[in-house]
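__Protein archive entry__

___
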Amino acid sequence: MTTEKQFEEAAEAENRDIDYSLSRVPASAKQPFWRILFIRIGAICCVSQLMLGAALGYGMTFFDAFVCTMLGSVLLQVVSWALGTAAAREGLSTSLLSRWCGLGKGGSALFGGVVAISMVGWFGVQNSVFGQGMASIMPFTDFLGTEEIIPGVTGEYILWAIITGLSITLLVVFGIKAIANFATIFVPLFVIVVIVAAAIVLQGHSIGELIAAAPPGPALSIGAGTTMVAGGFIAGAICTPDYARFLKNGNQVFWMTLIGTFLGELGMNLLAVLLANAMGTENVVDIMMGTSGIIGVIIVVASTVKLNDINLYSSSLGLATMINALFNKVSNRNALVWALGIVGTVLSVVGIINYFTSFLTLLGVAIPPVAGIMVVDYFFLRRSRAVLEETRKEGILPRRVENWNPITIICWLVGFGIGEVSSIYAIGIPGLNSLILAGLLYWVVMVVAARIKGVQNITFKETDEVL
């Protein structure tokens, strides 16, 4: 049972926590639409998106690449909008929202742990890319050593990986406002730099001819291209609530996802398609970075930071939820960010993180089924909507929550299995397969169980120890 002392501890922690890890975002802390929009665009509009677009352009026509981008992104944007709308309405992060969207307190601990490990892992991977990029661009640190100490690790790289990892960690410590401020500056700068670099590369080429040109490389099917597009952002789409909760309503979430898709995903992809057709290669990022040293630096810095800060931010929110669910403790968010940032940085510095990409990909398949379950529970079954609405105006968490929902756990495992089988045998889009089928299975089982028991909704044992 939640004691008065625990409520006081939670209130005190909320006062210290400027990002409301374990509480609702109050109306006074909601952010202007454009600030969150820049975070969204920054999470999509990056070097990896250019690499994806170039891979599409190398193997298919401009029109086919357009179709793949639309097919691969539309469903993800629907999921982003649905979860983001729930988050904007309730003011809760992805992992905390899951407590009242089918997972219960125990399930939110599992999900928070998966999100924390997955996102800090990708933080480490991206930090490796960041460090390697800076080491190759900045010649004045060559004296530290350019020979590999172990595979992929040089003395120069170690310095840059430490600098980049801890710098991003410091940014995330300052919270969503700092992340938004950085994105507001560097997203436009990144877009301008990419356009300028592309204009230099495309000089002497006819845009009309490039649009109509046959792909320069081996043919890539629409199905394979769509899988590449959807797979590249599925985890990011599911973690949309972590920043969408700072928006005021679902309309703002809709426009955020729509604009982000057209500017970040569609715009970057199609520009990279033109570049791939013009240069006859999919290595367009290297070519663009070679146009100018300073432009290359800006591309690497702006792209990696504005993507990687969200990875670490979501990881800290997931870990905060897990620790609270397991130990009924409200953790200091700043301490969690520093701990996760240091772990991710160290793993990237010693090169170990590169051996975990298969494990991280495995975890990536474990996240989508939860999104399907959450959308079904919140929008269709509406099992916890009453308790959420009771306390929304007061700006506090609901006074009770389910301990466990065994049906959710079973459907989550089945969805994970479907995703893995889809991945092994290359059937469709593994993440989307697991998301859709887990959501459908959850809906069917819950509805059938409710009818058998003769009730409107199946509920499980609850606790008033919400924190």
In short: The CA atoms of residues 130 and 276 lie 23 Å apart.
